[in-house]
Amino acid sequence: MENQSKKEIMLARMKEKKQEVRVVRRIVFVIALILLLIIGIAGFRTYNFVSGALKPVDPDSEKVIDINVPIGSNLDSISELLEENGLVKDARVYKYYVKFNNQAEFQAGDYGLRPSMTLDEITESLKTGKVYREPLFSITFPEGLTIEEIAENVIAQKTDFTAEEFIEKMKDKAYIEELMAEHPELLTEEILDEDIRYPLEGYLFPATYPFYEEDPSLTLIIEQMLDATETNVMQYKSVLDEMDKTPHWLLTFASLLEEEATAQSDRQTIASVFYNRLEKDMPLQTDPTVIYAMGEHKERLFNKDYEFEHPYSTYQNKGLPPGPIASAGLSSIQAVIDPADTEYEYFLADSEGKNHFAKTYEEHLENQEKYIGN
Q1: Residue 315 and residue 292: Cα distance in Å, rounded?
Q2: Which of 44, 100, 274, 284 has the most CB atoms around it within 10 Å of its CB?
Q3: What CA–CA distance (Å, rounded) separates 78 from 85?
């Protein structure tokens, strides 16, 4: 009887386990079915959303919407500009569409676009630079110029304003404060450091600018250049935040590369040299800072020049100078953000302007003897 009772108990437990297994299987099946339905619905909605975003906003519209694509605009800012003006349905979809089709070489300018245009038509317009309004003339500001060189070599030569009028504007405290209020993330209190010669030194982006009126004001010229700097610098804001650095630091660093380098590869390698020296608390010892500090153009520096005491001299002071020493182009800015990975701590340029790099001071002396001599 006892054995029979045990068998009955075992059989009952086996039935219970089988029933539990069946229940678990049903639950798993139901959950899997629900997940598949959710995925299917989400996929269907995503497909419909993307498909809709790839179509014109309003196929029947004849309205022309004027937009301005600033110099230095990147794909993110252009996509957002198009969405804000009702020319594309979704900025993210347009951005990925352009990337997928490898079409990203857009031109700055004023455009007249219609909501009825396809994404291909919009992209083609932005690529070819078919602007709605043709500029009357343009002015080119080369890379590597100081405020004083911009005044003398560009403003005085290409506009009706004198170099003195431009310099006076650069020293106008009320105007600088106005600009700081308009560009709070770009123009910070750092530009007001007492050692800085001109608050906007290095902040006027070098590029070719179109103008649509015969006599543009100085403020229009300056603010168009400042807008381009903001566009090119603030695209790296998240990177700067991670590095715990500011736009002022970036433009200061980039200006040193602009004055020292010629090729993009040189900029990235020189950037690595400066990073390595900063990490080891070594002075940067870059000649352009001495030339800027002395306030006069020199083809060659002598030993006594390196002893010139000034906050901008990176021979007399460690770290970066108080501010930029020239206007840096985008390639120099990018080199600061993405430097080469090297162990170099020294470099010098030969008589042809080619840079030679060294890991140790002994190697540097050998390069000096080989490429420069005594």
Answers
A1: 13
A2: 274
A3: 11
**371 Cβ neighbours under 8 A, 6+ residues apart:** 348, 350, 351, 356
Amino acid at 345: E
Cross-strand partners of 140: 208
What pLDDT score does 244 carry? Answer: 95
pLDDT for 133-154, tens place per residue? 567 889 999 999 999 999 999 9
Task: Report the run of H or E that residue 79 belongs to, with start and end.
Answer: helix 75-84
**CA nearest neighbour of 355 among 284, 257, 250, 280:** 257
CA distance 120 to 100: 12
Q: Which amino acid is at 94?
A: Y
How far apart (Å, rounded) are the C-alpha atoms in residues 328 and 252?
9
* φ, ψ dihedrals at 64, nearest 5°: -105, 125
| CA distance linking residue 351 with residue 90, whole number of Å | 54
Query: In angstroms, rounded to a whole number, what is the distance separating the alpha carbons of residues 19 and 262?
Result: 78
Rounded to whole angstroms, the Cα distance separating 138 from 189 reads 32
Of 295, 290, 307, 310, nearest to 195 (Cα)?
310
The encoded tokens of residue 162 equal 């004198």
Q: Quick one: pLDDT band at residue 11, thresholds 50, 70, 90?
A: low
| CA–CA distance, 331 with 113 (Å, rounded to integer) | 31
- Detail the DSSP E strand segments found in 146-256: 208-211
Using alpha carbons only, how large is the chain's radius of gyration in Å?
31
Cα–Cα distances in angstroms (integers) from residue 316 to residues 304, 313, 374, in the given order:
12, 5, 23
Which residues make Cβ contacts (< 8 Å) with residue 328, sequence separation at least 6? 143, 144, 202, 206, 251, 254, 255, 257, 258
Predicted confidence (pLDDT) at residue 258 exceeds the cutoff of 80? yes
The answer to whether the CB of 256 falls within 8 A of the CB of 285 is no
